[in-house]
Design a protein that fits this description.
0% helix
Length: 126
């Protein structure tokens, strides 16, 4: 069992940056592929990025490439999402998620993830 708690969301102007954090409970954090998703009002939850258990490999969806960076610190049980050059269309609730069973980090569907945080709101003003 893993509990995930996101933080770091807030209101930022277009072009600004935010760093989201997701703290995991338990001693088995390094066993999970970690992912970030987001959900805007009226839209489905969509994949943003994922990172391997060791942190050595990452994968991004197209809109995140070049602007967002996912990283993790297994000693701190924390995964991060650095978001730069934010746009109003990035406004959403951002969720972190943990995947116990996948072999590849290209895990982009919600059903593959076993545990979810409660989300943190990111609002980008124009």
């Amino acid at each position: 069992q893993v509990q995930l708690v996101e933080s770091g969301g807030g209101l930022v102007q277009a072009g600004g940056s935010l760093r989201l954090s997701c703290l995991a409970s338990g001693r088995t954090f390094s066993r999970y592929i970690m992912g970030w998703f987001r959900q805007a009002p009226g839209k489905e939850r969509e994949f943003v990025a994922s990172i391997s258990r060791s942190g050595g490999s990452t994968y991004y969806t197209d809109f995140a490439k070049g602007r967002f960076t996912i990283s993790r610190d297994n000693a701190k049980n924390t995964v991060y999402l650095q978001m730069n050059s934010l746009k109003p269309e990035d406004t959403a609730v951002y969720y972190c998620a943990a995947d116990a069973g996948s072999l590849s980090i290209i895990v982009t569907t919600t059903r593959n993830y076993d545990y979810w945080g409660q989300g943190t709101q990111v609002t980008v003003s124009s």
